[in-house]
């Protein structure tokens, strides 16, 4: 410091005497040395600290409602379940919420739709095919002579930490795979594990959980209903698709899911909306909490199952309607 003072005074000897440093005071001396008042320097430092704090606050994940925010998304194959699940997950995560997306659809395309890189997707083993984990948790290995001696209530509290995959925007993905179907039902280790996973998911706090599932919720029964209070049922404007949607909506009501939202996707003209309403009347069921109409979107067809092009185009009808549906889900989660 004395070296700096000396050089300053020596360099400016024509203007200042050495004693002037002491009479000016150290703060004013720094003003001469740095060209800025200390108050200005301090204000800039505080401003930068506030900017950093604001960025950290934005990155801090919001807490979902205390009761839990869990949504099952279902409908006939090909109606856009996975695309909508991925869009909702990414949009909610961008809003600052902690999001767990669960893939229970047999096609298991949610990782691709979310934007998980291929090299990571290729390494994902769905839980229903993870023989070591099933055996570890249930005491029985699928494909062997396990008889009836296995745990029906396996402890799966580590499942997300061990097998969750972090995708874009911080969305956590868990790929479950679908339950084993059998004509007379299947009492087997795979289904016991998946049932336990759903029950555990119901207990997780402070998260928004979105489950992409095949049409027909009966395989999870009451385990699903205990935590999932909202269902999004997607349909196209065709008789078969609407019929599957009605069956799914009825089942959701029977399971006690309180809010059932209908999404009519890929609509090209007004008459198709009227057609869906006629089919609903014919089938004798129109008990939906809300209805959302999504116009046909070429971006979805062109880039399926990826959603980056949709997220990057605010004018996309699918993007705009996904935002609308997101707000609906948040409203009914309160």
What would you say about this model in short?
The protein is α/β, with parallel strands linked by helices. The protein has helices at 2-11, 20-24, 26-34, 38-59, 81-94, 110-114, 118-121, 131-138, 159-163, 189-203, 221-225, 239-254, 270-283, 298-303, 308-311, 317-333; strands spanning 69-75, 99-104, 165-166, 172-175, 208-213, 230-235, 259-267, 290-295.
Terminal Cα span? 61 Å
Please count the beta strands (DSSP E, at least 2 residues each). Answer: 8
Return the CATH architecture of the largest domain.
Answer: 3-Layer(aba) Sandwich
What is the succession of H and E elements? HHHHEHEHHHHEEHEHEHEHEHHH
Number of domains: 2
- Helix-residue proportion: 40-55%
Cross-sheet strand order for the largest sheet? 3-4-2-5-1-6-7-8
Number of helices: 16
| Structure classification | alpha/beta
Query: Which parts are unreliable, with pLDDT below 50 for 5 consecutive residues or more?
Result: 1-24
Determine the mean pLDDT. 81
Rounded Rg: 29 Å
Globally, the shape reads globular
The CATH homologous superfamily of the largest domain is termed: P-loop containing nucleotide triphosphate hydrolases
CATH fold-level assignment of the largest domain: Rossmann fold
User: Tell me about the biggest sheet?
Assistant: 8 strands, mixed
CATH class of the largest domain, anyone? Alpha Beta
């Amino acid at each position: 410091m004395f070296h700096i003072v000396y050089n300053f005074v020596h360099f400016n000897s024509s203007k200042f005497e050495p004693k002037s440093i002491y009479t000016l005071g150290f703060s004013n001396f720094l003003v001469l040395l740095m060209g800025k008042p200390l108050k200005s320097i301090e204000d800039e430092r505080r401003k930068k600290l506030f900017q950093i704090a604001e960025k950290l606050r934005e990155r801090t994940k919001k807490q979902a409602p205390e009761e839990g925010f869990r949504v099952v998304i279902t409908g006939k194959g090909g109606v856009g379940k996975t695309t909508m699940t991925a869009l909702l997950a990414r949009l909610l995560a961008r809003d600052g919420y902690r999001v767990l997306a669960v893939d229970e659809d047999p096609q298991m395309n949610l990782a691709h739709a979310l934007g998980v890189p291929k090299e990571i997707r290729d390494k994902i083993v769905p839980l229903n095919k993870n023989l070591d984990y099933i055996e570890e948790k249930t005491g029985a290995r699928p494909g062997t002579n396990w008889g009836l001696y296995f745990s029906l209530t396996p402890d799966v509290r580590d499942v997300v930490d061990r097998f969750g995959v972090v995708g874009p925007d911080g969305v956590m993905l868990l790929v479950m795979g679908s339950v084993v179907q059998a004509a007379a039902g299947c009492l087997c280790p795979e289904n016991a594990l998946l049932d336990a996973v759903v029950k555990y998911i119901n207990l997780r706090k402070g998260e928004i959980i979105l489950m992409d599932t095949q049409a027909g919720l009966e395989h999870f029964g009451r385990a699903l209903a205990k935590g999932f209070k909202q269902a999004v049922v997607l349909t196209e404007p065709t008789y078969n698709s609407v019929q599957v949607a009605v069956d799914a909506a009825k089942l959701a009501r029977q399971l006690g899911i309180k809010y059932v939202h209908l999404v009519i996707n890929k609509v090209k003209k007004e008459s198709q909306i009227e057609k869906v309403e006629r089919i609903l009347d014919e089938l004798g069921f129109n008990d939906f909490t809300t209805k959302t109409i999504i116009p046909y979107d070429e971006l979805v067809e062109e880039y399926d199952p990826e959603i980056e092009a949709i997220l990057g185009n605010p004018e996309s009808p699918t993007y705009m309607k996904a935002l609308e549906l997101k707000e609906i889900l948040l409203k009914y989660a309160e």
